[in-house]
Model the fold of this input.
Amino acid sequence: MYWQLYYLKKNSVGKRLEYERDFEDGELDLINECNKILGDFNSFSDYYIMLKHSLIELKEYLLKTENFNYKLKSPLELKNVIIEVNRKFINFASMFRTFLDYYEVQVNQIYGNPSDELKEFKRKCSKYFDKYFEYRFLYNLRHYCVHYKVPITKITQNVEDKRRVFYIDSGQLKNWNGWKPIIKNDIENLEKNIDIKEFIKKIESILNELNKDISYFNTSEVLGAIRIMKKYCKSDAAPYIAKKVEKGNGQTNFEIKNMIDDFVLAENNIINLGILACGVFNKDYGFQFFDPFNMMFTKEEKEKFGLN
Done:
């Protein structure tokens, strides 16, 4: 048997897989190509989500332990808090480098080396490196942690705000002679300790901006693949690629493949970037757009001009 288009529909007794139609020539290859494009796009988002989760874990632990209601009754308890906040901070710094390294490897594999896309990725990363001390510091911090000391070593009590403040000691940073020249001047010019909470607030904003800047959401390939796969979506049923498998006892089973998982994830990942609508044009693919909330075109306009 061969692959066909089916829809999983709900009825009064449960769910039923119903035959829709045979695929046209080349249609299944196009679906597979679209899912490959969207799968590659989603893989970038996966690593950013892991980076965000490592940051969230750090923020939540700081929020819990900075409060005076979190009692530290002994030097051992204080020591354990310092160890744990450093563990989470070092995990975050390591995940940041992993995110960037993975992104570069994926761009290299998908677009090739050399390629305009790889050059553009490196150019954008360099822009953030040059612009923000927090980016440069985080980028080089893992090397410091591996070869010298844990970063967070100071805690002060802010009685007025009733909270503890966690710091990276600027003097300790200056004592290490392993800084690369690109960051060494920044370290030497530090005038005060680094407040971890303030640092996290700044770096979180930078990383959100970076991820949006380097994400490949606004390309003809990604938006075109989303538009193609959206045509298979129905409000009351889910599409599947399936084929019948005859069994010797006269029964029929189905071999089933998911069809729109990567499409659903891609739409969600774009929305999570804060993008509610966008479009792009090039001479090979024409105009492609992302407009799930009918912000660029009304539903009626899409139907009139065949934009659905």
Q: What stands out?
A: Residues 276-308 form one domain.
